[in-house]
């Protein structure tokens, strides 16, 4: 079978085209992942959806196909933390220190990503290699080792000159099947889309925010909208600003020495506020605290005790 029937559904023309059902999207993506689709057909389908905009059913179907195509990882995680931002508008990946704090609270965190097109200041893999943050509780798995085929699809961004729904599907994947996931988006409209797709997939706990450069990273200087799922029900809440300073979350050329900040050798109040605000929202997602404000307080306590011999407290 080819992709032609599915392309016909979404591209027939005005008044006749429609979105794929979740089942149709699953079947189409399964063909692509199995290597049974022509490259021209893959490009046609992805770019039609890019132009029109994907639906939650399509994202759910594509994600289900990716999950089915790859054997489940043997990694057991409490929190799924995708990091797939391209990085052109990003600075230092301070969310990595937030993930470290969460792991020191006793939760197993799985980071996974492609992390392409990143300048040196924003490079996730470089930061992880130089800071010594990884441990049994904080893991990072690159997309190319989890699914080389998905990596190839994501690399089509270079061919198209545009992102495709594969960026969203990668965020939705949750390869460790963790019970809780946090996701960042660059475009606000995707917050609700990803929450609805997750609900269609049977996921029960998810937090989605418009984060720095598309990562799950909270700006402490602004009130932000929080979307997602709690016990399978849709949520829409506000996370308040934590500081009065008004500034951009990132300077693309800005450099923050993550290792020095973690060790306490660097004093950067704004960078530390980003770490604590992001960790607080992740801890709230894990139900480590009943409210976002209480989780923010917990994150602050964890930061102060981050070098203590016994760190697990949640």
């Amino acid at each position: 079978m080819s992709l032609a029937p599915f392309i016909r559904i979404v591209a027939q023309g005005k008044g006749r085209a429609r979105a794929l059902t979740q089942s149709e999207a699953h079947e189409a993506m399964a063909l692509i992942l199995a290597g049974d689709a022509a490259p021209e057909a893959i490009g046609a389908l992805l770019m039609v959806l890019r132009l029109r905009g994907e639906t939650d059913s399509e994202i759910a179907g594509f994600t289900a196909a990716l999950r089915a195509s790859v054997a489940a990882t043997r990694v057991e995680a409490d929190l799924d933390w995708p990091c797939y931002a391209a990085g052109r508008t990003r600075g230092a990946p301070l969310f990595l220190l937030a993930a470290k704090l969460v792991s020191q609270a006793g939760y197993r965190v799985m980071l996974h990503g492609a992390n392409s097109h990143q300048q040196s200041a924003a490079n996730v893999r470089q930061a992880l290699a130089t800071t010594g943050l990884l441990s049994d509780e904080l893991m990072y798995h690159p997309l190319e080792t989890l699914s080389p085929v998905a990596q190839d699809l994501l690399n089509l961004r270079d061919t198209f000159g545009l992102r495709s729904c594969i960026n969203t599907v990668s965020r939705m994947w949750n390869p460790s099947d963790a019970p809780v996931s946090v996701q960042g988006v660059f475009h606000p409209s995707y917050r609700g889309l990803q929450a609805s797709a997750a609900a269609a997939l049977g996921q029960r706990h998810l937090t989605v925010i418009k984060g720095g450069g598309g990562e799950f990273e909270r700006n402490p200087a602004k009130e932000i909208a929080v979307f997602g799922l709690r016990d399978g029900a849709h949520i829409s809440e506000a996370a308040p600003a934590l500081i009065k300073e008004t500034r951009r979350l990132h300077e693309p050329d800005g450099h923050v020495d993550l290792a020095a900040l973690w060790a306490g050798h660097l004093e950067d109040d704004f960078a530390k506020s980003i770490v604590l605000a992001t960790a607080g929202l992740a801890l709230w997602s894990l139900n480590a605290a009943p409210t976002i404000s209480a989780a923010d307080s917990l994150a602050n306590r964890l930061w102060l005790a981050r070098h203590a011999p016994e760190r697990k407290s949640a």
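The chain has a mean pLDDT of 92. The radius of gyration is 19 Å.
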